[in-house]
Design a protein that fits this description.
The complex is a heterodimer of chains A (413) and B (294). With 413 residues, chain A is mainly beta. Helix content of chain A is 8%, strand content 51%. Chain A has a single domain, classed as Porin (Beta Barrel), CATH 2.40.160. Chain B has 2 domains: 156 residues, Nitrogenase molybdenum iron protein domain (Rossmann fold), CATH 3.40.50.1980; 108 residues, Rossmann fold, CATH 3.40.50.1980. The longest helix of chain B is centred in the middle third of the chain and has 22 residues. Classes of the chains: A mainly beta (413), B alpha/beta (294). Chain A: Keywords: Signal.
């Protein structure tokens, strides 16, 4: 027995080998909430009038008015809630471009777990749907001043976001690979391709179909998301990221209406290993997506002089954008974006008369200057070709100013 | 039988610890990796996130960095807000409970030094890229590195208890070598006067007795305008410093231009381990810094 006591003593004394503690010199601080503010303003001109601009610059935070647009003034709040979750909220303020009315949106408010086992992470609250590259990011994180056409068509003016939860799993693989499953409410004006809202359909009815109010009865009435995100470093200077996303849920055309959206996105980034302030760099970014919108049949004979009998039809739309941005010298970058969107299946009144489903392409050169990390000036020209426009084309020039202050912004990939 | 069970139970911690033999450490900067190697020897795997010639203020949180952090037992970083642009994002996205703030696998190396240049009045960004907790470039100072190395040894012993003695012994050997080298580095820089591009060598100046009497950047992190450069030409001609001090990634063009105009030599000091082929570890880094300043 003595032998074991001896071993026990040896083990006990061989563990913490420190006789004295190292002296900590630096102090700590109480971090409760990080606040930051980012403001995007634009000034510019277009060959189209303000009413048409609401359709061709269809993003809620796009420059979309002759003269000046208050695009997006965003207040962000982040902080640790407790040892298990971090909180985040983003409140956006902007002016309605037509009426000048003040609008306030709760863009996002959610918590994220920080230390679940097995590489799992849960996000819960009200947040952007993790579909593709542009949708989950805030307007000030985009390189161009407006959102891609295809995003406007599928996800509406403010991007797809809603209340729900998402589970992310960083898979135990040799490269970065994350799988997401999400469940969000299908109704509300930010769920445009799904149950949407009457207000949204008043402005932008999909396929010009009537809006049918629907109740949430079970899990089938929510929107489901699956996404896989992969990334590899091709060299010290080049990183690639490729993702595939899919969404499934009910839509606003009736009990039999359902929507599937799927897409792929690619980012290739070169940043010199000997960079100064992050320059030079080259970023190639592309996204392609398709929507199958199964619109339910509709019959209404309440007005005998105007009996509505609309057949069931699947409206198929797809489109892509591809953009390249070259940071050629410290503070400066030049880029080019090309977009295309089209579809099949008729809108009521004809697809090419529907400003959110017609054949359309857009070509947008961009020049950016960032005097510091906290401010940005951009000039962008948009050349639009759209079947819906009387002249079939439009020209717009937008000059944008951005500034941010408060907590340091995150340099996300 | 009882003896066997008791013996197995007693030996169990040893097996658990030996299964834990290699501690995975993610370090942000190359010099931190170099000190970890001195203390951790072959008991640790080290991954360094930032490349030697990258500007450490402007790093993007690449997915590969998040993946590395997700597998780390310990994350060791510079602190004093130097990594504020990317490290918080990496820590959160890694969803690794071991390296979250406040855990023993989260080592802010600056906690072991006494920061200098802590602003004594209110500061905001109109003063440039101000670090409110003090100057974050503290690694070109033997005094600081001695403290940081001890902090690293302590953290390694806390996480990998079985090898505590090994880390302690390595620290003692490191301390002795460092004391020896300090004698060699001596006092040859005392009294020298430099104009520096960025606030990068303040700790070194304090320890080795030289002076930095002006800066080419008008404010930390703000590139000089041509008017500011013009003013500097007059000032440099008047005070004739011993050199215009810069690093490989900062302000080479501006410094060379000023040198041409004033005849004062440019001193490009290595700033981190691995930034040149002959700077293989932290000792070599200090050797070359002192050599270039002479």
């Amino acid at each position: 027995m003595k032998f074991y006591i001896f071993i026990l003593l040896v083990l006990l004394f061989s563990f913490p080998a420190y006789a004295e503690d190292v002296k900590l010199v630096g102090g700590g601080r109480l971090k409760l909430i990080d606040i930051s503010m980012d403001a995007l303003f634009a000034g510019g001109w277009s060959t189209m009038n303000d009413n048409t601009l609401q359709n061709i610059q269809g993003g809620g935070h796009d420059p979309r008015k002759r003269g000046f647009t208050v695009q997006n003034v965003e207040l962000s709040f982040t902080g640790a809630v407790d040892p298990y979750v971090n909180g985040e909220a983003h409140i956006v303020y902007f002016l309605d471009p037509l009426t000048g009315e003040t609008r306030v949106e709760m863009e996002e408010a959610f918590v994220t777990t920080s230390s679940l086992p097995y590489g799992l992470q849960v996000e819960a609250g009200h947040f952007f749907t993790e579909f593709g590259r542009i949708n989950p990011r805030h307007p000030h994180q985009w390189h161009w001043q407006d959102q891609p056409i295809i995003n406007t068509r599928f996800f509406g003016p403010d991007g797809m976001r809603g209340a729900g939860f998402r589970l992310g799993w960083l898979m135990p693989l040799p490269w970065f690979s994350e799988l997401h499953f999400g469940l969000q409410n299908a109704n509300g004006e930010t769920m445009s391709s799904f149950l949407a809202s009457e207000e949204f359909f008043d402005e932008r009815p999909i396929g010009n179909r009537p809006f049918i109010e629907q109740e949430v009865k079970g899990l089938n009435d929510l929107v489901n998301l699956v996404r896989i995100d992969n990334s590899v470093d091709l060299s010290e200077d080049v990183t690639a990221k490729i993702g595939f996303s899919g969404l499934y849920g009910p839509n606003a055309t009736g009990a039999n209406g359902e929507t599937i959206i799927y897409g792929a996105d690619l980012v290739l980034k070169w940043r010199s290993a000997e960079q100064i302030r992050g320059w030079p760099f080259l970023i190639l970014e592309s996204e392609i997506m398709k929507r199958d919108y199964k619109a339910a049949a509709y019959f209404d004979d309440s007005d005998p002089f105007n009996v509505m009998n609309i057949q069931e039809e699947t409206l198929k739309d797809w489109g892509f954008y591809t953009q390249i941005l070259y940071g050629f010298t410290a503070g400066w970058a030049a880029g080019l974006r090309y977009e295309y969107a089209t579809g099949s299946g008729e809108s009521i009144g004809g697809r090419n008369n529907d400003s959110f489903r017609d054949d359309r392409s857009r070509f947008s050169p961009l020049l950016t200057w960032m005097p510091t990390e906290f401010s940005r000036f951009r000039i962008q020209y948009n050349y639009d070709r759209s079947e819906y426009l009387n002249d079939k084309e439009a020209h717009s020039v937008w000059l944008g100013i951005e500034f941010m202050y408060g907590a340091h912004p995150a340099h996300s990939f | 039988m009882l003896k066997k069970i008791l013996f197995t139970l007693l030996m169990l911690p040893m097996f658990i610890n030996s299964a834990f033999a290699d501690v995975n450490i993610v370090a942000t900067l190359p010099w931190i990796g170099s000190i970890i190697r001195e203390i951790g020897g072959d008991k640790v795997n080290i991954t360094v996130l930032v490349k030697p010639n990258q500007d450490p203020h402007f790093i993007e949180a690449k997915p590969s960095m998040i993946l590395k952090a997700s597998k780390a037992d310990i994350l060791m970083y510079n602190g004093l807000d130097l990594e504020v642009g990317y490290l918080p994002l990496i820590i959160t996205s890694s969803r690794n409970p071991r390296i979250q703030t406040g855990q023993k696998g989260n080592l802010d190396c600056s906690r072991y030094i006494a920061p200098i240049e802590i602003p004594q009045r209110d500061v905001d960004r109109s003063m440039g890229d101000i670090h409110p907790f003090g100057n974050p470039h503290y690694h070109l100072s033997p005094k600081n590195i001695m403290n940081v190395a001890e902090g690293i040894a302590q953290t390694l012993s806390d996480v990998d208890i079985a090898n505590g003695k090994f880390y302690r012994a390595n620290f003692i050997s490191f301390k002795e070598r460092l004391r020896e080298r300090q004698k060699q580095w001596g006092d040859s820089l005392r009294g020298k006067r430099f104009i520096a591009f960025h606030k990068y060598f303040e700790y070194t100046a304090e320890e080795f007795g030289f002076q930095i009497i002006g800066y080419i950047e008008p404010m930390p992190g703000i590139p000089p305008s041509s008017a500011h450069i013009e003013r500097l030409i007059g000032e440099i001609n008047r005070i004739k410093p011993d050199g215009l001090l810069t690093t490989a990634y900062y302000g080479k063009r501006e410094t060379e231009f000023l040198s041409q105009k004033t005849g004062v030599k440019v001193v490009v000091a290595p700033h981190d381990v691995g930034c040149r082929e002959d700077v293989k570890d932290w000792f070599a880094l200090m050797d070359k810094v002192i050599e270039s300043l002479k």
